[in-house]
Automatic annotation (TrEMBL):
It catalyses: beta-D-fructose 6-phosphate + ATP = beta-D-fructose 1,6-bisphosphate + ADP + H(+). Residues 81-389 form the Phosphofructokinase domain. Pfam families: PFK. It comes from Hamadaea flava. Pathway: Carbohydrate degradation; glycolysis; D-glyceraldehyde 3-phosphate and glycerone phosphate from D-glucose: step 3/4. Its EC number is 2.7.1.11. The record marks G182 as: Important for substrate specificity. This is ATP-dependent 6-phosphofructokinase. Mg(2+) binds at D181. ATP binds at G89, R155, G156, G180, D181, G182, S183.
């Protein structure tokens, strides 16, 4: 269902009565294509068709709150105590966001009490014995040069009541959660528990995912760095495949349920002949199946490069022992890379054809690197936006970019579905154009 105004409305802790120390910045900002006033909205729809389908007057069209400093804020900066936590898998730019939050809070709002909770949501639960670290501009200096997160991370569900007990005990007023869809589900539970207890604690998320699977956000931070890194493997596979008779380069990249990394990395150097993603099922066998298609292409051109996202073709592995779930309840996937590697080799052997396979799985190497300059810029802007939102008492929301503008997105909306490659959309069409692979196999 297309979201309406109620779905886009962000929760607030109460009226903003305190003058923002950044008052000069938003003072008389005119509404331009780059800047919108507090009472303005960034429209949800961006085509005439979408607007017409609403059948609404222009003033009633749904839109997101723009990010940015408010003239009046909710929290008194000198008394504000802030917590920061990073959860879920690694992603380039986590340290950039931590540093951006600390610098903005300290330098512009004068917030001095900033605490880092270690190893994700475990950091709030006493039985894990994780130390809480004080974060200062000095302690976060230069951390953006490194991959990973200085706070550490974890998977595994923790009780929201216990987390809020900890926040209360430490008199935390603002909690920033940097994490993926699971982390945001956890953040919403925390915000709901805070509300049930009638507390005034803002919970603001900065969505993190190399898979780019969080919806209502143009692109998540770290994604660009991750797919750029994956292109190196595709280039390597391509060079190797060219150097040998009937070379097949097979690259297996991350992407649990969404094939964005595979699509973007493949498009970036335009060397791939086939891209296999979870969103587009394919047949392996038969004259029009993937294997026969690949064989004919290798026979014709002497080589081919295949890029497979980890979530692709899981149905072929249904008979294998189920690898279970991770600590957070995410289904572990079976290894489609190794499966294809063997099936391709068998298929060529059955047809009596020589084939030289070069298999590359860059695995964690694409997400453990520092952010590239584009992602670093994205991270710092998200961090600034998150601080402005939290200081103005916004809660149960994440910051993101929608159609090029930075906006506040209610967490409920950000976890309402998964962002996936649309098999009928223009991205997949570009992949089909670039690779020359058929729309369907089989
Ligand atoms: N439905 C949920 N309710 C409460 N907490 C949750 C929920 N799902 C996940 N979490 C918690 O959020 C944290 C991170 O979740 P998860 O491991 O799924 O990673 P993620 O944030 O989705 O990131 P990514 O998928 O990119 O690695 C874990 O501590 C997990 O227990
Ligand atoms: O091995 P881990 O740390 O659980 O993470 C693996 C998963 O994390 C992601 O990188 C991000 O969700 C997925 O693409 C991948 O399946
Ligand atoms: Mg997740």
């Amino acid at each position: 269902m297309t979201p309406g105004t109620a779905d886009l409305t962000v929760r607030t802790l109460g009226e903003c009565r305190i003058d923002s120390p950044l008052v000069a910045l938003p003072a008389d900002g005119p509404t331009t294509e780059h800047y919108v006033r507090e009472d303005d909205r960034v429209l949800f729809d961006d085509t005439l068709q979408m607007v017409a389908a609403r059948g609404l007057d222009s003033g009633e069209l749904p839109g997101f709150e723009p990010t940015g400093p408010r003239r009046k804020i909710f929290f008194q900066p000198s008394k504000t105590r802030v917590g920061i936590v990073t959860c879920g898998g690694l992603c380039p730019g986590l340290n950039d966001v931590i540093r951006g939050l600390v610098r903005e809070l300290n330098d512009h709002y004068g917030v001095k009490k900033i605490y880092g909770f270690r190893n994700g949501y475990q950091g709030f639960i006493s039985k894990y014995g994780r130390e809480v670290v004080e974060l200062t501009p000095q302690s976060v200096s230069g951390i953006n040069e490194y991959g990973g997160t200085i706070l550490g991370t974890s998977r595994g569900e923790q009780d929201a009541d216990e987390i809020v007990d900890c926040l209360e005990h430490m008199s935390i007023n603002v909690l920033f959660v940097i994490g993926g869809d699971g982390s945001m589900r956890g953040a919403l539970r925390i915000a709901d528990t805070v509300q049930e207890r009638n507390l005034k604690i803002a919970v603001v998320g900065v969505p993190k995912t190399i898979d780019n699977d969080i919806p209502y956000i143009d692109q998540s931070f770290g994604f660009q760095t991750a797919f750029a890194k994956a292109t190196e493997s595709i280039r390597g596979a391509s060079v190797e495949a060219r150097a040998v008779p009937n070379g097949v380069g097979l690259v297996h990249v991350m992407g649990r349920h969404s094939g964005f990394i595979a699509c973007y990395a493949a498009l970036a150097n335009n060397d791939a002949d086939y891209v296999l993603i979870p969103e587009v099922p394919f047949e392996l066998d038969g004259e029009n199946g993937f294997l026969a298609h690949l064989r004919r292409r290798v026979e014709r051109r002497g080589r081919a490069v295949v890029v497979a996202a980890e979530g692709a073709g899981q149905e072929f592995l249904a008979d294998a022992t189920h690898p279970g779930h991770d600590a957070s309840g995410n289904r572990r996937l079976r290894d489609i890379g190794q499966f294809l590697r063997h099936r391709i080799a068998d298929h060529f052997a059955e047809h009596g054809l020589e084939m030289n396979m070069k298999y590359i799985d860059p695995s964690y190497a694409i997400r453990s690197v520092p952010a590239n300059p584009y992602d670093s810029v994205h991270c710092i802007r998200l961090a600034h936006a998150a601080v402005h939102a939290a200081m103005a008492g916004r809660t149960a929301m994440v910051v993101g970019r929608w159609r090029g503008r930075f906006v506040h997105v209610p967490i409920s909306l950000a976890i309402s579905k998964r962002n996936q490659v649309d098999p009928h959309g223009d991205l997949w069409m570009s992949v089909l154009e670039a690779t020359g692979q058929p729309r369907t196999f089989g």
